[in-house]
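Notebook p. 47: complex prediction with 3-isopropylmalic acid.
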Amino acid sequence: MKFNVAILPGDGIGPEVVNEGIKVLQTVGKRFGHEFNLTYGLIGGISITQTGEALTKETLKMCRHCQAVLHGAVGGPKWDDPKAKVRPEDGLLAIRKGLGLFANLRPVKLFPPLVNATNLKPEIVTGVDLVVVRELTGGLYFGRPKRQWRTSRGRRAVDTMAYSEQEIERIIRVGFELARARKKKLISVDKANVLETSHFWRQIAMEVAPEYPDVNLEHMLVDTCSMQLIQNPRYLDVLVTENTFGDILTDEASMLAGSMGMLPSASLAGVPQEGTGIFGLYESIHGSAPSLAGKYMANPLATILSVAMMLRHSFGLTQEARIVETAVETTISEGYRTFDIMSEGTTKVGTREMGDMIALKVGGQ
Ligand code: IPM
Ligand code: MG
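Predicted complex, structure tokens below:
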């Protein structure tokens, strides 16, 4: 099969980890006879430097001609001036919105050999395997008005948390579909005791629920959820939540997996179903880590696992996705680690060596 993939390496360690993702993707291509046509584009800080914009129309158009996008990371000190008119992060928000990527899937799975790489007690994190479904193109991130202004009594600022029923319904459906394919347990996370949008969210979740009689729906307040993630993370399986809540909860949840460098993500433009391809953007949840850039020590596993998600969700290549995931698991069990997941008695490798080892296994060697 033939697939067109847009590659947006971005800033900092983005290009380094993306290279390892491509290495693995091309190995999948060779072994299984697929052709992945790659087209490169600019996003984030590098795009600001070269074009003045964090995301150009050209990049967006190029992505629209592809079935999937592999994204590195954006941001860095060069573009950090708080007075700057445009920030690298604007590029990421614009591409999410521009491509209609409303469903952000963030699986959090602790690979057993990494149990000592986490800051939590082994008995708490052993067996953690959950996925956060984060609404990605609405809520507090995108609601209007959003601005700062001056008044006679001082300066003011506002952000708006707003949702339409359609926006909530489709993301709730993504949650239900995923729950159906897993443990048939969906937790909808909100702040319904205070926020009107959350009250609305909960109502819509309850309206959709009868269509999924095989899935058990539970509601959880976001503050409780943040506590549960640390207290009893194994209780959680599929969570569905608002954009900002999802942003915060997934950074917290990443610590259960040992490192942010382990967490992939998929941002989809539709409801995922086994065997069918949906347009999506794939990226690790970690940032551009400017202090590591150019050192080739960053962990590429989150990006490689994002490639596995691409194979599964955008190309319907389930077997190929599993092979990539198994290669990651095997390499970890053999004791190879990047610096962020090192523990006593393991072997430290760099970004490229880690990518090479995964690619070798994916290639069948
Ligand atoms: C994430 C990141 C982004 C977000 C930033 C870089 C804009 O934190 O993907 O979680 O807040 O969504
Ligand atoms: Mg975040």
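Notes: The first strand starts at residue 2 and ends at 10. Residues 189 and 225 are 7 Å apart (CA to CA).
Next step: compare against the earlier run before touching the bench.
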